[in-house]
Amino acid sequence: MPWSTGGLLNSVTTQHNVLNTAAGWQMPSDLANEFLCLADFEPAARDRLPHAVYEFIAGAAGDEITMRDNVGAFDLLRIRPRVLRDVSKIDTSITLFGERLSHPIFLAPTAFQRMSHPEGEVAAARGAGEAGAIFTLGTSGTATIEECVATSPVPIWFLLYWQSDRCFNRDLVAQVAAGGAKAICVTVDMPTLGDRRRQMRAGFKIPDALATPYFNDRNTGLFKIGGSPKRAILTWPDVEWLRSLTALPIVLKGILDPEDAELAISSGADAIVVSNHGARNLDAAGNDRCTAGSCRAGGRQDSNYYRWRHQTGNGCFEVYRSWSNRGDDRPPICLCACLGRIGWGQALC
Q1: 6-72+93-348, superfamily in CATH?
Q2: Predicted TM-score (pTM) of this structure
Q3: Dist CA 25 CA 192 (whole Å)
Q4: Average pLDDT, rounded, for the chain
Q5: Best CA proximity match to 274, nearest among 266, 284, 285, 112
Q6: CA distance 319 to 306
Q7: How many separate helices (H) and strands (E) can be counted in the chain?
Q8: Is 310 among the residues known to form the active site?
Q9: 3-state secondary structure string, 66-100?
């Protein structure tokens, strides 16, 4: 049955407010042994969230073959440690679009985050920023770019869901640029919504009362996430047009083919995100890890960013080793549902 966020948000607000005022990254002692790694947050979030919300977060497209493959690909990796090396002064920093970052970790955009925590994207941006990670706010986010920028010392990116109305796209890019966005990320792998059976079986529906500042008409049919007569299919000439609108870096999210990686750069994109949309859109697509190495866009070592749900430091190590970057979706949302901002330090620091 459809559900409402009202009761959920009212019941957890006090608990989250207490947790979020704790000093620094010190996790309350009664929780320190409950959450030892990112994987621990998922069953806890399942217990805390309404069933339909959890199924929306945790589910994937079709038979979820690609989702299992995404995780399994990392299970097959093995680390070959080198010994007797001085590692007391390891530098994990990178320069990205002219900004010096302390590590190559960023958080992928995820929709409707206030369904899992009262502060939603604001809590995520604050926690990510304090951990030195880039946060990406989506068109379907429940906070404004200004709110996120105000909470983070690290650059905030904005994810654009392309619409058939070019005026909408133009105005939104200008609005978020004025609000402080440091890059425009564009979803290119979602011509239509995936066959997400778990959320359909659970009766998931976006609550009417849930504010989405950049998507106010989501329930009227005027603007759409996913395919519809109102939403045009994005093509390479559209990327060129977008390039003409802004001086901000443009990042195309959802590239899995090396030829598309080359086309992305030649069309004006500054970088790509190697991603299969968290397996939420097309089942049986290649997993991110297997396609990342072949998508070195234009031979540029700084133009390939890598997305999947690494749940341990080893997973991050393997991505960093191949000079790709980390972007998460499900684990951070589960983390936010459990602890809000305070938990980010445990996950990212």
Answers
A1: Aldolase class I (3.20.20.70)
A2: 0.82
A3: 40
A4: 77
A5: 285
A6: 7
A7: 15, 9
A8: no
A9: HHHHHHHHHHCCCCCCCCCCCCCCCCCCEEECCEE
CA torsion angle for 49, 55, 60, 66 (degrees, to 10)? Answer: 70
Q: For residues 174 and 277, which has the higher predicted lDDT (pLDDT)?
A: 174
Question: Whole-angstrom Cα distance, residue 131 to residue 152?
Answer: 10
> Tell me, what DSSP letter sits at residue 278?
G
- What residue has token string 């080893």? 314
Distances (CA, A) of 46 to 123, 203, 276, 281, 289: 19, 16, 24, 22, 27
Q: Say if residues 66 and 283 touch (Cβ distance below 8 Å).
A: yes
Amino acid, single-letter form, for residue 212? T
Q: Which helix (H) or strand (E) holds 136?
A: strand 134-138
Which run of H or of E encompasses 187? strand 183-187
Where along the chain do its domains lie?
6-72+93-348
Query: Tokens in use for 279?
Result: 């397996």
Residues near 236 by beta carbon (within 8 Å), at least 6 away in sequence: 263, 267
pLDDT on residue 348 = 66
Q: What pLDDT does 149 receive?
A: 98
- Distance from C-alpha of 268 to C-alpha of 243, rounded to nearest angstrom: 6
